[in-house]
């Protein structure tokens, strides 16, 4: 058993040493909406931003962990018989942790096309009400949100562009009595641009 473990470890180290490794710093925008608004509510995604980096381990098939800091904004409208009572923007600050698996569909010297999919987790850092018209605060939200993400990556030499979508698997709101019956989830679209640093074996 010990001999098999040593052989397996040596094989993994050999594969890791031979595999491509890249760092991909990125910056971009996001549009975060919330599904299933409660009665008399409307949600609409506003423009937010994100900044972070991914790592890539592997060649054609690769593992892509990453971390991104961002601010997301959603407009809330409160209606009464289709009459707008008031509107507010709720801004959330998150740390997003990625664990994606990807495959290079096109792998050439001039251009790469990648597809990535996997789980992500958003750690809620803060919640801001811009106008204080809606009384939601950080305690009304779950501290974290589990998501399923999918993205495409376009690599052109040093530069990369990556559109993606994130489907929330966790409820947005906490178990506080005032919001515990709202089954809303996050739906987020994003677009980042960045650079690729590191090995590039072709």
Describe the protein.
There is one protein chain. This protein has a single domain, classed as Porin, CATH 2.40.160. Helix content is 8%, strand content 64%. It contains 1 helix and 10 strands. The longest helix has 17 residues.
Instruction: Compute the number of helices.
Output: 1
> At CATH's second level, what is the architecture?
Beta Barrel
Using DSSP, what is the number of strands? 10
Determine the N-to-C terminus distance.
37 Å
Q: Helicity level, as a percent range?
A: under 10%
| Total domains | 1
Helix/strand order, N-terminal first: HEEEEEEEEEE
Q: What proportion of the residues form beta strands (DSSP E)?
A: over 45%
Strand order in the sheet with the most strands: 1-3-4-5-6-7-8-9
Give the overall shape: elongated
Q: What is the C-level CATH assignment?
A: Mainly Beta
Report the radius of gyration as a whole number of Å. Answer: 20 Å
Uncertain residue ranges = 4-17
Largest sheet: 8 strands, antiparallel, barrel
**CATH topology-level name:** Porin
Describe how the helices and strands are arranged.
Blueprint: H1 2-18, E1 21-34, E2 41-45, E3 47-58, E4 61-80, E5 83-107, E6 112-129, E7 144-156, E8 159-168, E9 186-195, E10 197-198
Antiparallel strand pairs: 1-3, 1-9, 1-10, 2-4, 3-4, 4-5, 5-6, 6-7, 7-8, 8-9
Summarize the structure.
This protein is mainly beta and 202 residues long.
Question: What are the defining features of this structure?
Answer:
single chain; 202 residues; mainly beta; Porin; eight-stranded antiparallel barrel; 1 helix; 8% helix
